[in-house]
């Protein structure tokens, strides 16, 4: 008998029909001889509606109270789902974050998990129940207050529970059939990935792939939880995210799987490029700049220092930050212009980032050559380059990004003629 | 400095505007130098909307899950109210039933309070906060599950908190200015009662007065909590419900108040009359009948045994039960007709009950005479009569009920020419 943790997003439980459909699927999984824990998000737009309500009251809601308000969303969906399971002939008990032992720090709105002790969930399973757990929320043992975990919270709840319960798999149900070798909306010939390593999935997520949130992949990798990303609208096999590349969990015993050289192509339109021009080319200036940025709480992604302009004794430093954080970063730098002594600042919002990800890169020379060759042939100019052991990323003009993604996807033989299926929006 | 517990029903916090209005009132109360605990119900129709959602899923929702679903309503209103208070410049913390230490038995949907230990509420007050507490809900220490307390739950929450915190007063905010000597919708000349004893209020509630729920008055009386029933739409003094008739809490020191002979006239349309005809007039038959009713969980109010018909050796036994429970009671009796040996059964739904309530009755002879005189003059025929030390109740035709109430109200000099004010619906 396997223990399966399933996570259903808000779009899967948007209305009574959706809740019944999900309930049927959960019961089916139990009747196939498994123990089932289902982590559920708030119904459809509930969270937005609650935020609107709060906005009618104040635009500076105390974080503690906002978390209490938002946590009501999962309490509704989880109890309704338990009712639907009961009506479908199985028995279920729903648990809030604190009842499920999801203990977090007290950073309201973006709490991090510090401990998971799902005793009540365990005993519910032992008594033959299906356990429903509210995603996205926890409790701070320090303040005894309700907390919420921010974006990707429900996915993280599911993976954390799977780790604590030593579940065989954590199934993340979403509105696509799995992880694709590129965004099907950009590359119609994108292929569904059957298996990808957590390491690769991390790079994909960090490079703009929206399907799984970085935090949940990190957590799954750290605790060795296999994730199966699949659609709640179909029964197709989805994508297995494997912590240990030597496992081939979704395949029959003794049927090893060939590790493809590259996993996929990710792209990201959410960043802006900041150039600090005319920085005195003397030690400590870069440090000074990035201290200022750090104080402005902007998250820097790529950094490039241009070669010093001969004789001038000055250099340019360029980096990327999330679009939303660009203005704050610029403001912070201007405030320290004298002390740092740079000549000029420039914010460029028209950039896009393309990344090629694959564990096979380590052992395969010539990947970069092929990558840049593909970009060149597509007439794509690269403005910034950064690499990891298993990733190459290039910043280019946003207008060129889609061409770039398609060109690289084709160049690495990732194209397929199987049509990708996209069903709807996703929950939190 | 006084400690004041205030309870606001769903109609007072139906929307953002209402929540802000209530917040302003609470802040005002604190700024007048008091510590304030506000118990709040779910917003307007939230509870009905949640029930509709559940009905879309199943018509047999497990009670445990239904309580989790319904309890979400107060979590929204309480956090929004705390936000509004914060926006109004004061500081508030909201607490769920379990956080506020409202411990109940595990009878989901109609849980009874078994213990109240509001430590977190106390410390919030000590730190200068206003404490908001979710009404209607608690937690069973036995099952660790969320429970709800059924009709009048939020009033009971407020009174129980007031008792545990030794509050100076429990203010119940509603949509009328207080308790009236009769239902203003029936008797336009009804007068607002300034002060009434818990004992009288109990009889009024038991006799059909809807303004305070029986449970909360019982609780207030047992623990000596003075209740001030008033409107959240005005600042008028409301009605004080005094546990000890020797207190005159709302008056200046040393200014005793004259106890009126009668407090008011209550009426009730919610009952039906059951007649068991031709019951063998031998010992034990009545017991047999009421055992059967008890097993059917019907709540009997009035009972009359007619004098035995001479020679016939049979008698009739008549009693009243809530309309909704009438059919079940009849069914139960029919199932035991042979064993009890009665001849016939009759259910009469067209009845109404009028009750005259007043602690002064004890010491004043002639009250009954005046009461029945008034009914006679109004042409009202009485079918059943029951009395307590401070109450006379009569069952009559429902069609005659309003006339009866007006006649008795006038006969006891309760009429006033001050117009009663009714503002809207009430919450739970």
UniProtKB/TrEMBL annotation, chains A, B:
Query: Pathway, per UniProt?
Result: Amino-acid biosynthesis; L-threonine biosynthesis; L-threonine from L-aspartate: step 1/5; Amino-acid biosynthesis; L-methionine biosynthesis via de novo pathway; L-homoserine from L-aspartate: step 1/3; Amino-acid biosynthesis; L-lysine biosynthesis via DAP pathway; (S)-tetrahydrodipicolinate from L-aspartate: step 1/4
Under what name is this protein listed?
Answer: Aspartokinase
**Domain ACT residue range list:** 274-361
Name the keywords, alphabetized.
Answer: Amino-acid biosynthesis, ATP-binding, Diaminopimelate biosynthesis, Kinase, Lysine biosynthesis, Nucleotide-binding, Transferase
Give the matching InterPro entries: AceGlu_kinase-like_sf, ACT-like_dom_sf, ACT_Aspartokinase, ACT_dom, AKii-LysC-BS, Asp/Glu/Uridylate_kinase, Asp_kin_monofn, Asp_kinase
Which Enzyme Commission numbers does its entry carry? 2.7.2.4
Instruction: Kindly give the PANTHER family that the UniProt entry links to this protein.
Output: ASPARTATE KINASE, ASPARTOKINASE
Q: Which family does it belong to?
A: Belongs to the aspartokinase family.
Query: In Gene Ontology terms, what is one molecular function of this protein?
Result: aspartate kinase activity
Specify the signal sequence span.
none
Pfam families under this entry? AA_kinase, ACT_9
Function according to Swiss-Prot or TrEMBL: Catalyzes the phosphorylation of the beta-carboxyl group of aspartic acid with ATP to yield 4-phospho-L-aspartate, which is involved in the branched biosynthetic pathway leading to the biosynthesis of amino acids lysine, threonine, isoleucine and methionine.
Q: Which reaction does it catalyse?
A: L-aspartate + ATP = 4-phospho-L-aspartate + ADP
């Amino acid at each position: 008998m396997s223990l399966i943790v399933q996570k259903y997003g808000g779009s899967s439980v948007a209305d009574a029909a959706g809740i019944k459909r999900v309930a049927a699927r959960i019961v089916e999984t139990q009747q196939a001889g498994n123990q089932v824990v289902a982590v559920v998000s708030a119904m459809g737009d509930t969270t937005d509606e609650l935020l609107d309500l709060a906005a009618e009251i104040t635009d500076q809601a105390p974080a503690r109270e906002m978390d209490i308000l938002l946590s009501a969303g999962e309490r509704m969906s989880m109890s309704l789902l338990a009712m639907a399971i009961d009506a479908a002939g199985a028995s279920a008990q729903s648990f809030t974050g604190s009842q499920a032992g999801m203990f977090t720090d007290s950073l309201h709105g973006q709490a991090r998990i510090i401990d998971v002790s799902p005793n009540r969930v365990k005993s519910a399973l032992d008594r033959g129940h299906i356990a429903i757990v509210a995603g996205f929320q926890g409790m701070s043992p320090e303040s005894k207050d309700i907390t919420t975990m921010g974006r990707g919270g429900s996915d993280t709840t599911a993976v954390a529970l799977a780790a604590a319960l030593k579940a065989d798999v954590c199934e993340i149900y979403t509105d696509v059939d799995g992880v694709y070798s590129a965004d099907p909306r950009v590359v119609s010939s994108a292929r569904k990935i059957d298996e990808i390593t957590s390491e690769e999935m991390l790079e994909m997520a960090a490079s703009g792939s929206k399907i799984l949130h970085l935090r949940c992949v990190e957590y799954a990798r750290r605790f060795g939880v296999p994730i199966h990303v699949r659609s709640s609208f179909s029964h197709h096999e989805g994508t297995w995210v494997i912590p240990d590349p030597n496992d081939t969990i979704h395949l029959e015993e003794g049927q090893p799987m060939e590790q493809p050289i590259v996993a996929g192509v990710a792209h990201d339109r959410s960043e802006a490029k900041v150039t600090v021009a005319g920085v005195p080319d003397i030690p400590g200036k870069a440090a000074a700049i990035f201290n200022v940025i750090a104080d402005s709480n902007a998250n820097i992604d790529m950094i490039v220092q241009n070669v010093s302009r001969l004789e001038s004794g000055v250099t340019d430093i360029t980096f990327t930050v999330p679009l939303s954080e660009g203005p704050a970063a610029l403001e912070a730098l201007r405030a320290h212009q004298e002390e740092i002594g740079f000549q000029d600042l420039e914010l460029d919002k028209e950039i896009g980032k393309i990344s090629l990800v694959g564990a096979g890169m380590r052992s395969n020379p010539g990947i970069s050559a092929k990558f840049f060759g593909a970009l060149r042939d597509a007439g794509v100019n690269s403005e910034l380059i950064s690499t990891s052991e298993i990733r190459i990323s290039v910043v280019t003009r946003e207008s060129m990004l889609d061409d770039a993604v398609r060109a690289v996807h084709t160049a690495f033989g990732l194209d397929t003629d199987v049509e990708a299926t996209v069903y709807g929006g996703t929950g939190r």
